[in-house]
Amino acid sequence: MSQQAQKELFDALAQQAQQQLLVTRVLKVVLPIMAFLLSMICANLNWQSTLATFVMLTVAFYAVGIYRLTLWHWLSLTALYVFADHYLSFSTPDLPRLRFQLFAMLGFVLIVGVSRPYIDRWLTKKP
């Protein structure tokens, strides 16, 4: 590989890293706002559930969207949280509420985890 081609490759990699840092900075602001709004929708009618749902969603969004940790680990942790939150809030199975909370939280964690590479690629293609 020639010196000029190697320099162009390093410049392109540096530009990609800079753009990924920009996406990370934007997501550090957007993801907690999204977690707050989703926790207002998905919480189980008490303030403890609202606070814990906000914390769980924020940590899960950061893990899969910013730190890019394993998605299925965070989906299973989110599912475990939903079952525990539902049990502590109601003590009896309430399937419509459980199903709503489970699918909403898992769906958004999945969307954040899957969309991060596409957001990076989309921003990289900008001139």
Characterization of this structure:
The chain has 127 residues and is mainly α. Helix content is 87%, strand content 0%. The chain has helices at 3-42, 47-66, 71-90, 95-124. The longest helix is centred in the first third of the chain and has 40 residues, at 3-42. The model has no long low-confidence stretch (mean pLDDT 93).
Task: Considering the chains and any ligands shown, give keywords for the structure.
127 residues, mainly alpha, 87% helix
Q: Quick recap of the structure?
A:
The protein is mainly alpha-helical. Helices cover 87% and strands 0% of the residues.
Give the topology, please:
Elements (H helix, E strand, L loop, with lengths): L2 H40 L4 H20 L4 H20 L4 H30 L3
Residue share in helices? over 70%
Task: List the uncertain runs.
Answer: none
Structural class category: mainly alpha
Mean pLDDT: 93
Number of contiguous helices: 4
Radius of gyration: 19 Å
**Largest sheet, described in full?**
none
- How much of the sequence lies in strands comes to under 5%
- The separation of the N and C termini measures 26 Å
Q: What is the molecular shape? A: elongated
Q: Please, what is the oligomeric state?
A: single chain
The string of secondary-structure elements, in order, is HHHH
Per DSSP E runs of 2 or more residues, the count of β-strands stands at 0
